[in-house]
């Protein structure tokens, strides 16, 4: 018999702040974490705004040697894992180390460090490249370093499926526990790509908002005036556990993970299928996995990037799968406040979804001012909404047409 899986700990570093409490308070008050880029001079770029992490101090979570050796996305991943483990009360020791694993997602890995050492190579030559450059920037060093730091010797992998990466990571962790391969998993994702190269790449694709004079109003999912997504950065980590394991040690439970779906659009390298075919099959798979009907879902934390094509495609997919019930669903995009954390988005949004279930409160889609006739569902506009949530869904879709979907339920014994 498949085992039940619950969420017992959360850790977050986002443009809204460091720590779950700051993030939840900001999200429920409709606060934007978007502002002018300060990490480098953005003046040559068409887009000069992003969701930067502002209040994080690496020295609060890592020693000086680790800070020097690892890209900042690893700093955020380790810090979020530390917060999540402390939140859960899970202790890892010799008796259970091989039953606790780590799966995280990242879209690009250590781009900050890559750009830095490319500059070192050009200006100072190959002898000045640090021997820690490669291990300090590869994507799998996030779960690797988390495992080293906390002694988790169970399953350990890194997933790189663009903007769906950390949603896939949570889903795969769910399956590992459900199938009895692990008792607990540290999972989610991290991304740190507010860099000149990444910004230039997305600007060349014309994918980003250029609302530079109003950064806090730039990320506006499903709004008629949306003009592109806003880059964000940070990490979201969850502790998943076998239910009996969690109950045995008296852990608090945020929510139960019950469904997971994944699919491919098989359509285009960056644009979603216009009819949302991949998203439809992905959400249906997650519902089937959970043994739930569409009418059982009360809330969807949408992928909702604030791009013309994605929002329309997701909206169509929801209507196709949920039928008339789609108009009774509460849907919101927390990217309206955090920006798009790319490979880290799914972890952060899974955490927000779990918090919504736990507290009976749905964060809003801010900046929803001008309804788009083609995006005509209930996006919980501008103000948080109290609502008892029996079951919720979180969507993440990525370049290459890769899709991931998670379903959570309110925990009942």
Computed over alpha carbons, the radius of gyration is 20 Å
CATH homolog superfamily of the largest domain: Thiolase/Chalcone synthase
- Pick out the low-confidence regions: none
Order of helices and strands: EEHEEHHEHHHEHEHEHEHEHEHHEEEE
CATH-derived topology of the largest domain: Peroxisomal Thiolase, Chain A, domain 1
Beta strand %:
15-25%
Class inferred from helices and paired strands: alpha/beta
In total, how many beta strands? 15
Residues in helices, as a percent range: 25-40%
Describe it.
By secondary structure, the chain is an alpha/beta fold. The chain has two domains: 5-248, Peroxisomal Thiolase, Chain A, domain 1; 262-405, Peroxisomal Thiolase, Chain A, domain 1 (3-Layer(aba) Sandwich), CATH 3.40.47.10. Helices cover 33% and strands 19% of the residues. The chain has helices spanning 20-28, 64-69, 72-88, 111-124, 133-137, 141-150, 165-178, 196-204, 243-248, 277-290, 308-322, 335-338, 345-359; strands spanning 5-14, 17-18, 35-36, 49-50, 100-105, 156-159, 184-191, 234-242, 255-264, 299-301, 330-332, 361-362, 385-386, 391-398, 402-409. Strands 1, 2, 5, 6, 7, 8, 9, 10, 11, 14 and 15 form an eleven-stranded mixed sheet that branches. Strand 14 and strand 15 form a beta hairpin. The relative contact order is 0.19.
């Amino acid at each position: 018999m498949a085992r039940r899986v619950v969420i017992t700990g959360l850790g977050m570093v986002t443009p809204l702040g460091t720590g779950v409490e700051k993030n939840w308070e900001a999200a429920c008050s409709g606060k934007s974490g978007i502002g002018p880029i300060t990490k480098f001079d953005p003046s040559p770029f068409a887009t000069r705004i992003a969701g930067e992490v502002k209040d994080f101090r690496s020295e609060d979570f890592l020693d000086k040697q680790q800070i020097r050796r690892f890209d900042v996305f690893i700093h955020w991943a380790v810090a979020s894992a530390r917060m999540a483990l402390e939140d859960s009360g899970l202790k890892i020791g010799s008796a259970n180390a091989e039953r606790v694993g780590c799966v995280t997602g990242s879209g690009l890995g250590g781009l900050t460090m890559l750009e830095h050492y490319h500059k070192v190579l050009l200006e100072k030559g190959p002898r000045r490249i640090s021997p820690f450059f490669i291990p300090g920037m590869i994507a799998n060093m996030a779960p690797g370093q988390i495992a080293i730091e906390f002694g988790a010797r169970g399953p350990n992998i890194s997933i790189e499926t663009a903007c769906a990466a950390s949603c896939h990571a949570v889903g795969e962790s769910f399956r590992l526990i459900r199938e009895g391969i692990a008792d607990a998993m540290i999972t989610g994702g991290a991304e740190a790509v507010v860099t000149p190269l990444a910004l230039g790449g997305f600007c060349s694709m014309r994918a980003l908002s250029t609302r530079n004079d109003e950064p806090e109003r730039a990320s506006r999912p499903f709004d008629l005036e949306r003009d592109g997504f806003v880059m964000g950065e940070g990490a979201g980590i969850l502790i998943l556990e076998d239910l009996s394991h969690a109950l045995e040690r008296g852990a608090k439970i945020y929510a139960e993970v019950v469904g997971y779906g994944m699919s491919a659009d098989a359509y285009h390298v960056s644009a979603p299928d216009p009819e949302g075919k991949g998203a439809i099959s992905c959400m249906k798979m997650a519902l089937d996995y959970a043994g739930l009907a569409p009418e059982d879902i009360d809330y969807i934390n949408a992928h909702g990037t604030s791009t013309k094509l994605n929002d329309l495609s997701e909206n169509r997919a929801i209507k196709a799968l949920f039928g008339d019930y789609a108009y009774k669903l509460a849907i919101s995009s927390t990217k309206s406040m955090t920006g798009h954390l790319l490979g880290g988005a799914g972890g952060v949004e899974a955490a927000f979804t779990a918090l919504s279930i736990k507290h009976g409160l749905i964060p809003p889609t801010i900046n929803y001012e001008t309804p788009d006739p083609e995006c005509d569902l209930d996006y919980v506009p501008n103000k948080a909404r109290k609502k008892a949530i029996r079951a919720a869904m979180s969507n993440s879709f990525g370049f290459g047409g890769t899709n991931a979907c998670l379903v959570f339920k309110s925990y009942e014994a």
